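Q: Predict the assembly, please.
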Amino acid sequence: MTERSRSETGPAHKTLETGMALLIGVFGLIVIFGSLKAGINWGAEGPRAGFFPFYVGTAIVGASAINLWHARRDDDGRLFAEWGQLRQVMSVVVPTAIYVGSMPFIGLYVASMVFIAWFMRWLGGYRWLTVAAVAIGMPVVTYLVFERWFLVPLPKGPLEEWLGL
Amino acid sequence: MEELANLFHGFAVALQPYNIMLMVIGITLGVIIGVLPGLGGANGVAILLPLTFSMPPTSAIIMLSCIYWGALFGGAITSILFNIPGEPWSVATTFDGYPMAQQGRPGEALTAAFTSSFVGALFAVIMITLVAPLVAGFALRFGPAEKFAVYFLAFCSFVGLSKEPPFKTIAAMMMGFALAAVGLDSITGQLRLTFGVTELLNGFDFLIAVIGLFGIGEILLTMEEGLAFRGGNASINLRVVLQTWRELPAYWVTSLRSCLIGCWMGVTPAGATPASFMSYGIAKRLARRGNNFGKGEIEGVIAPETAAHAAGTSALLPMLSLGVPGSPTAAVLLGGLLIWGLQPGPMLFVEQKEFVWGLIASMYLGNLAGLIVVLTCVPIFAAILRVPFGIIAPLILVLCAIGAYSVHNSTFDVMLMLVFGVLGYLLKKCNYPLAPLVLAIVLGDKAEEAFRQSLLGSQGSLGVFFSNGLVGTIMALGLVALFWSAIQEGYSRLRTAMA
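A: Predicted assembly structure:
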């Protein structure tokens, strides 16, 4: 983990560090802008709604400026991560995004089945039998624990409607 | 003596069969959460919080706090057997615990770790029993200025005590305050920072942030490292336990010191992780066999485990008595109080005696139950860890999604969780601390309310925060904590200049 060969490449830590400071700084500016819209001075009932967030936003921008300065100054040539590692991370983020995005339409149960099956088959390389057992077993257990035992409703789609659950 | 009567009443509450059942369920779930990477104490409790909405508050907090104790115990198992810290606070336990396991002494290391955890927790609970009512009684006299001063001190301690760069801590913390401010302003009833997005009317729920930042973020970090588990077998038998217990009293000085470090770091919101490192470092310097640390010294397991558990437990002291949680998990529990309709803070000790003392009594019992559960079931928990990550990871992601959804029955929250997850991954990689961010989301509204009410009383003059001895002292302590690293640097420069 600590020993890296020279041939491995990836984005520099400095770049990401800079980007992060800028991103947080922009967030701070948005907060300041929103606070100004809400009013930062004193009204009839005392400090108005934007009063406190305005100073919070100012602190974010100030701290980010210093972090940005540090990020530009310190360059230890470290990598943020190797491309291969980032590919691993993206191979989780992208399917999770699809999983989360499809949930309002097909419901949590079906989405979870597909997601678990995809993950186990393509990233884990398991046999279909194992994949099917976990991918179907987990949502069924979830249904029993959440909907039946604790009476917490979870989002359902057309399949559950057809099954009359 | 009234406290003693209250405590016995609390034991009567905690010993009801239903509550004992929840206690054991909580401990077991907690250990599993502690063992699995990607599921920590804070987001484990956050995911399960919706399940408790229909329970009586006392039973609910007993179960959730037991999950927390379980997670504290569980982190040690993976550290010792697999050299993989299940939780950040058990990193220091790997230094000597894993070498011990490799030398064929895993049972001894595990027994020492669990017993030390128990001792640390017991010490902290006794402290809570004795000190919390006093602090709460004292805090009852607090006005808005004093309240704000306490928040100020808590947040400044983060800046001064955390190992991350101070300006990154400030940036992370202020982001938390900003996120807390989104939505309806509780004082004027005006909308702010929503930019016309209706989903943001109610602001950001910190439970979603916790599940995303700690749960999803942790999974992404684990994916990057491509974890493969290799580890020895775990077996504890009674003979090893008894033999280790006979050895332990010899290390009472280390234990006591670690308890004190843990309690101090837990009450000030530095938390369990720095406490365990600090305790390990000091033990290494002071122990007679300090040079052997890192090669499998039992004292090197006792020190961090005692401190981590003492810190984790005492983090509930400020949460109960002041309404200021000392750790992210304590913050989630505080969020739970609000959801169950209880107002955290000193009034709890007056209005909700049964709840407070039931919880405190359950801390004694829960940690005892935890010790028994982990000592007897280590092989089972170790076997869980052999389930490959390819199966565990999607299940944890689905659990996180379920947890995020059931907070408000909203699929928007699930998407938000993923955004927080990616953000958590990036922040962690760039060395921004996540704990102050979460605490700021939880406490943002209350801190702001106290701030604005104080200013209202003083017609806008900041002098109100130094208007009497009490509030002035707390504020001054906060300022010292805020500039602590600068003060330290200045002091060492002065010394080199003098020399």
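DSSP finds 22 helices and two strands in chain B. Residues 2-498 of chain B form one domain.
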